[in-house]
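General statements about sequence and structure are easier to judge against a single worked case. In the encoding step, the backbone of a single protein was reduced to a row of integers, each denoting a local shape. The record that follows shows the chain in one-letter code together with its fold in token form.
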Amino acid sequence: MTAWEKMQQHQIYDDFDQDLFNRRVEAKKLFKEFNKTTDDETEKRREIMMKLFKKVGERVYMEPDFTCEFGKNITLGNDLYINFGCTLLDCGQITIGNNTLIGPNVSMYSANHSLDAEERIAGALIPEPITIGERVWIGGGTTILSGVTIGDDSVIGAGSVVTRDIPSGVVAAGNPCKVIRKITEKDKVGFKK
């Protein structure tokens, strides 16, 4: 089984594998090309995203400067906004649900190196998926670690470090990120379109 195949099955793999190195180089070419585009080049941006990512929904707007590791392990839903400076290290699958807002300088890291020094320097890497639900808002400067699921309709406060799953319909924040409270009808501000 290749390192890429092990990665897809969330098994420990050799992070120094030559095929993975080549895949990273291809992803860098694409995201660097994306980052050179201007706001009026929406079709070009979409074409690049379609080449880079596993799946791209409709009406996905992503600001430069964006970085990722492979791209092909990222699934983007419909009606997304991804703000400036997003980093998605997609050794494990990263899935972002519909109608989600990603603030500036958000990072998602879907892998862990082995804690054992000998294994780590040999290249042992453990991928775990990150799943962001629908209608989620991730505040700026947030870091989301491997294996985390954030439930639908939740809000993650700016600067949080999310190390564990967050349920649906809550406000959560902090380092480590913890649930502060449920989102209720009292949170409506009266906006109508």
In short: The two ends are 53 Å apart (CA to CA). The chain is about 20% helix and 30% strand. The CA atoms of residues 6 and 74 lie 17 Å apart.
